[in-house]
Amino acid sequence: MASLALKCLKMPDGLIFLVPEQDDGQQKIIASAVQVAVNDVGVYIRAEDIILPIFDELLTHILKNPNVQVWIVAEGRFVEENSITLELDRDAILEAKGVWEYRKSRAAKAPA
């Protein structure tokens, strides 16, 4: 089952996503398996079974600052350690942004 980020922290050099730890504690992220994609509700990053939504107001920020940190957090731990740091492909972000903006414009023009 996919995990959805709990929170996104906007930092000067990119974004930090806090993701809940799964019960089995076996979440691993392989940088080569990270994708930037678009669905009906917006742009997102898929890292293995983790979904990191990129809301509209963050698209320009992530284009200029493509660094993403994913932190797997657990309720029972006070101290957390960075799980992985990624540098997203700017071309992939730009392409996803274009697809998303096109979809939004088409939806706005569609008759009710």
Q: How would you sum up this structure in a few lines?
A:
This protein has 112 residues and is of the alpha/beta class. 26% of the residues lie in helices and 38% in strands. Helix 1 packs antiparallel against helix 2.
Structure commentary:
This protein has 112 residues and is an alpha/beta fold. Helix content is 26%, strand content 38%. The chain has one domain. It has a four-stranded mixed beta sheet with strand order 1-6-5-4. β4 and β5 form a beta hairpin. α1 runs antiparallel to α2. The longest helix is centred in the last third of the chain and has 20 residues. The protein is globular and about 50 Å long.
Portion in beta strands: 35-45%
How does the major sheet shape up? 4 strands, mixed
Mean pLDDT: 87
How many beta-strand elements? 8
The portion of residues assigned to helices is: 25-40%
Question: Can you write the helix and strand succession as a string?
Answer: EEEEEEHEEH
Number of helices: 2
Rg computed from alpha carbons, rounded to a whole number of angstroms: 15 Å
